[in-house]
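Before relying on records like the one below, remember that each one covers exactly one chain. Contacts with other chains, cofactors or solvent are not represented anywhere in the record.
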Amino acid sequence: MIGEYGYMEEGKLGKPYDLRLLLRLIHYAFPYKKTILLALLLTMLITLFDLALPYLSKIAIDRYIFASSYALRLSAPEKEDIAESLSNRLIESRDGSLGFIRQEDMKKLDPALIHAWKSKGILSEEPFYRMAPGAELDLPDGALQRAVMLKDYSTAVPAETLKKLEPNVLLKVRAKDLTGLGFVALVLIIFLIFSFWLGYGEYYLMEGIGQRIMQDIRLQLFERIQSQAVRFFDGHPIGRLVTRMTNDVENLNEMFKSVMVTVFKDIFILGGILTVLLYLNWRLALVCFALLPFIFALTLLFSSLARDAFRELRAKVAKINAFLQERITGMRIIQLFATEEFQAANFGQINHENYMAGMKQIRIFAVFMPVMDLFSAFAVALLIWYGGGKVISEQLSLGSLVAFISYIQMFFRPIRDIAEKYNIMQSAMASTERIVEFMDHKEEIPEPAESKSPAEVRGEIRFENVCFEYEKNHPVLRDVSFAVNPGEMVAIVGATGAGKSTVVNLIERFYDPLKGRVLLDGIDLRRWRKQDLRSRIGLVMQDVFIFSGTLKNNILLGEDGKVPEALESSIREANAHTFIDKFPKGIYQELEEEGSNLSAGERQLLSFARALAYHPKVLILDEATSSVDPETEHIIQKAILTMAKKRTTLVVAHRLSTIRSADRILVMHHGRICEQGTHEELMALGGIYYKLNRFKEM
């Protein structure tokens, strides 16, 4: 569908297309599956290290900083039940009357069971501290009065006893805890170092994969562009195609190198956090999980709004690119007719649309990010209130509460990270949507299932009842039939829009006829391989495109296998040597963009040499002399006469003086051939050709 300013509107493919986009991304990444799996393995290891850090803080607090234990009276009738409930967590005294359990282990028990033990006097109210064997020697006299010797040769003393010690004595008594804290700190540093190097490897691998995938996609896109029929380019502005090859592919690269690993890592972190929270305290974890439905609902709403916003933004960017490409290319016309203000106003409108699309996605982020921060703060407040009460009631250790708070803050970090990456992800998905839509768009001239092309081409061209239209119900050719014999020079003339250039397009098979057949040497062009057909036909157009590079490259167009004699012969036959010899470097002279250092006539002669370099049996000249001066026209006419002696030649011309020597002239009018014959015969007829000549003379 053609939209405003003549640009192709891009349809919204919708959510059912998402799965297809995902499958296509997997298809692009599949050749590098081993490297991606290695990167994902590194991501999992990094995630494990990240998840271990808050748990290390819990261990440091519960096991070493607040290293307290509680005493259980084992002489009670429930001794066997107690021993069975605590399993190997209980350390008995030497006389077997008491058992001691660490505070962090006790928090894993059922609170109802703990309450029952306390009500029966089985569990002590005050905490104890277990000293390593030999540490009791550092205690002052009288401090061991309530000490209990345990079977593992450690000593348990009331925690109140330690509060009365001098700091230097306390450090000696708790030397084991200090050593444990040092070990935890060392493990923490080791984890961070490993995480750093694993992160480096992960980033390097994914960056390399992104670059290679981007290289593959660009190559596929370029090959697809080259394979499209000419009709495809009628509805796709160059700026939009360039956007596909550059911006859209770069966005896809960002998807692979920045988003893919981030998303997997965030999923791993979220899953790991949920698991660890349930392990630490499933009751408190369920309280925190009450926020999850609201978080997921908000995320789904945001993703829906953001997707539409980014699709609209990418469409506006493509519209700007297409507009700029057309206007910059046609800047001479704009300045010639002094339409700068009009064009600036048009660009201002498109630019404003792009601005509004950008502000739309900014507003979405401006709401989502603060709301997520609000949920995070609410979750921490809920933990402090509910979890703090559990710590006070000694149903939860302080280390577990600190770890909970760290994990909850870590839980919201991946969600915020995904949101921050969502602009990249949505931009990449929108670009992927456009790339896939383009890759799946096939508007090609098909190759024959069974090709047929003779070894020797005579150059006979035949049209049989050919009808053609560029747009439906707007015919350009109406039942056209004619033949051009091998070695014959035939000219086609007619008013603008009569269908002359369409005849050329059909012979080159840029299009296929709607009805009828076009034949070369008696074979339908649809049965020729396109490469075989176009290598037999040389085309010289009115508008000559010159590539940046040398004269030689512009003549051979990459076919460096041509022998120097063949190249020299084509240059001489086209009379192109008249200007090539003037350059100091000859055929190795570098040409500027679009051949700006060549005149119109020189570009035309260069196109003759380009067409003849492949030794075509059929030569088509489409308005080849319409934009040159009389002197250059005379040189071109001499070249045409020389070339026409060796091959079938079809000449389309407005300048009737250039085709008077043709063997036959076809006169077209409103898509039909109305007259044909030699110049003299047509002038004598006094019809359309006669009127065209009289008009040109006026």
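Confidence is low (pLDDT under 50) at residues 1-17.
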